[in-house]
Amino acid sequence: xxxxxxxxxxxxxxxxxxxxxxxxxxxxxxxxxxxxxxxxxxxxxxxxxxxxxxxxxxxxxxxxxxxxxxxxxxxxxxxxxxxxxxxxxxxxxxxxxxxxxxxxxxxxxxxxxxxxxxxxxxxxxxxxxxxxxxxxxxxxxxxxxxxxxxxxxxxxxxxxxxxxxxxxxxxxxxxxxxxxxxxxxxxxxxxxxxxxxxxxxxxxxxxxxxxxxxxxxxxxxxxxxxxxxxxxxxxxxxxxxxxxxxxxxxxxxxxxxxxxxxxxxxxxxxxxxxxxxxxxxxxxxxxxxxxxxxxxxxxxxxxxxxxx
Length: 308
Fold this sequence. Notes:
Blueprint lengths: L12 E7 L3 H13 L5 E7 L6 H11 L3 E5 L4 H11 L4 E7 L2 E3 L3 H11 L6 E5 L4 E3 L1 H7 L9 H12 L2 E5 L4 E3 L3 H4 L1 H17 L4 H11 L2 H20 L20 H6 L42
Parallel strand pairs: 1-2, 1-4, 2-3, 6-8
Antiparallel strand pairs: 4-7, 5-9, 6-7
């Protein structure tokens, strides 16, 4: 394994991920990440306290590949992502990798795209439709890093990036697919995750009424009523947990969007207007090379292309 005293200059790329009870798909997921990781790179996995054998599997994989670094630290999702970022030694970080997804080797191609674009934008944060974030460490530090949230941590992370003035650019590709896991297969596990999601939406400033309305737009009547009960329990959880102050000027309209990428996936012609989404038109850099990028119009009244 790598000597922990190695200098940061010997690691150019840091791939960062978290894990909790994903042992049944862990090796398959990490293998895809490692296949896309250049030789001058490291893969940091922060395990938040798994109880399904994940830690033992991670240690075995770490012993076989000296690019893999395992950190075991009781943490929620946002805390784990921040721990991984703070441990990173690379000059370029790829964040928000997930151990319940399988990644294509084309991950390394993202690094080439990033390095070409950053010649124009030294504060560039390049993101994909499957929620990968590629950047230098500096704009992440200046934005404040990841919030200590167990769910919806990405939403607040993007708010921080936008309000810090970082150049956020969207590469409209997805280089991963979801792996079915035992952790997410049961109704009990799905209910627990929605309760955590609702709790953290409330913690960052969304009114309970907005979350309940979202349930009835998203689910059938029977599932919505169950989700309503979970939201009431989440409201109790949120009162006991520490609130997370919203970013200055961040919109808090009536629409609940779990991740801002959902807007682009389902409505390619939609330009965030600051009311229904987390971003306003001025938050996104829109001058993309025509052959490689989706061209998002900067004027809300005249979307650039039809949806579909």
